[in-house]
C-alpha cells in the first residue's frame, strides 16, 4: 500500500510538473507569436514606405508632409502659410511670417531624392559617376530656382531654406558634396535637415514669444502712463475746486 501510494504521488507530481511546463511553453509561444505579428506589421510599414519613396509624386508629398508637420507643430496658427503666393506670382512650399513686419522666411521642400537614390543604387563605377553628375545638376537646378523665384527684396528674407527630408542624405551632402553646399551659400540658400529645421522653428518661436511679450509690456506701460495722467488731472481739479470753496466761520459760544 505504501509503495502504491508513493507511485501515485509520483505520478501526480509528474503530471503537475508537465502541466506547468506546458503552461509556460504556451506563454512563450504566445510571446513569440506576438513578436512575429509585430515584425510582420513593421515589415508591411517598411514596404509601404518603400512604395512611397519609389513613386516620384508620393515621394515629393512625403518630403513636403514632413516639412509641414515640423512647421505646424512648432509655430502657432497664423505664423506661417503653406503654398502662399508671392508678389511675383510664385508659390513657395512654406512662408513663415517674421515679427516686427520684417520679411518672411521661405522654406522649399523640393529635393531630388530620385537622383539621390540612383547614386546609392548604382553598382558600376561609370553608372555611379553618371548618377552623381545628374544628382549635382538636379540640386543645382533647385538651388537656382529657389534663389530666382522665392528671394524677393522687401518681401522675403535674404536667405531661404531648402529642406532635405532625411538626416542621412543631409549628412552625405555636407560630407561628399561640399561644392553644392558652397553653391547654395553663394545663392543665399541654406540646406537644412529635419532636425535643423526644427531647431530653426524653435528659435523663431522664441523670437515671436519675445515680440508678443514686448508688445504686451508696451501696452501695460502705455496704460500706466495714461492712468498717471488721469490721476494728475484729478488732483489738479481737486486743487482748483478747493481754492473756490469759502469756509464758513462759525462763532464759538462762550463757555459758561
What portion of the residues fall into strands of 2 or more residues?
Answer: 5-15%
Report the average pLDDT across residues: 75
Order of helices and strands: HHEEEHHEHHEH
Query: How far do the termini sit from each other?
Result: 134 Å
Biggest sheet layout: 5 strands, mixed
* Structural shape: flat
- Runs in which pLDDT lies below 50 for 5 or more consecutive residues are 43-53
Question: Strand order across the biggest sheet?
Answer: 1-2-3-4-5
Reported by name, the CATH topology of the largest domain is Trna Endonuclease, Chain: A, domain 1
Instruction: Give the helix level as a range of percent.
Output: 55-70%
Which CATH C-level class of the largest domain is it? Alpha Beta
Description:
By secondary structure, this protein is an alpha/beta fold. It has two domains: 21-54; 57-209, Trna Endonuclease, Chain: A, domain 1 (3-Layer(aba) Sandwich), CATH 3.40.1350. 69% of the residues lie in helices and 9% in strands. It has helices spanning 2-54, 56-74, 113-121, 125-150, 167-176, 178-186, 194-244; strands at residues 80-82, 94-96, 104-108, 156-163, 189-192. A five-stranded mixed sheet has the order 1-2-3-4-5, with helices on both faces. A hairpin with a 7-residue loop joins strand 2 and strand 3. Helix 3 packs antiparallel against helix 4 (125-150).
Structure keywords:
alpha/beta; 69% helix; flat; Trna Endonuclease, Chain: A, domain 1; five-stranded mixed β-sheet; 2 domains; 5 strands; 256 residues; single chain
Amino acid at each position: 500500500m505504501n509503495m502504491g501510494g508513493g507511485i501515485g504521488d509520483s505520478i501526480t507530481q509528474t503530471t503537475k510538473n508537465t502541466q506547468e511546463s506546458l503552461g509556460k511553453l504556451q506563454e512563450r509561444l504566445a510571446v513569440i507569436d506576438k513578436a512575429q505579428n509585430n515584425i510582420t506589421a513593421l515589415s508591411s510599414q517598411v514596404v509601404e514606405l518603400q512604395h512611397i519613396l519609389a513613386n516620384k509624386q508620393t515621394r515629393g508629398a512625403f518630403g513636403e508632409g514632413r516639412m509641414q508637420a515640423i512647421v505646424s507643430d512648432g509655430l502657432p496658427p497664423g505664423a506661417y502659410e503653406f503654398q502662399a503666393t508671392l508678389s511675383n506670382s510664385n508659390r513657395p512650399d512654406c512662408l513663415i511670417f517674421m515679427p516686427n513686419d520684417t520679411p518672411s522666411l521661405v522654406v522649399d521642400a523640393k529635393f531630388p531624392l530620385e537622383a539621390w537614390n540612383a547614386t546609392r543604387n548604382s553598382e558600376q563605377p561609370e553608372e555611379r559617376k553618371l548618377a552623381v553628375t545628374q544628382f549635382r545638376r538636379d540640386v543645382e537646378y533647385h538651388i537656382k530656382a529657389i534663389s530666382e523665384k522665392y528671394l524677393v527684396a522687401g518681401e522675403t528674407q535674404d536667405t531661404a531654406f531648402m529642406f532635405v527630408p532625411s538626416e542621412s542624405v543631409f549628412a552625405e551632402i555636407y560630407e561628399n558634396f561640399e561644392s553644392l553646399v558652397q553653391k547654395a551659400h553663394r545663392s543665399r540658400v541654406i540646406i537644412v535637415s529635419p532636425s535643423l529645421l526644427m531647431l530653426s522653428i524653435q528659435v523663431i518661436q522664441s523670437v515671436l514669444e519675445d515680440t508678443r511679450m514686448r508688445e504686451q509690456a508696451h501696452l501695460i506701460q502705455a496704460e500706466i502712463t495714461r492712468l498717471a495722467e488721469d490721476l494728475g488731472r484729478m488732483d489738479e481739479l481737486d486743487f482748483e475746486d478747493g481754492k473756490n470753496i469759502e469756509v464758513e466761520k462759525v462763532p464759538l459760544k462762550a463757555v459758561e
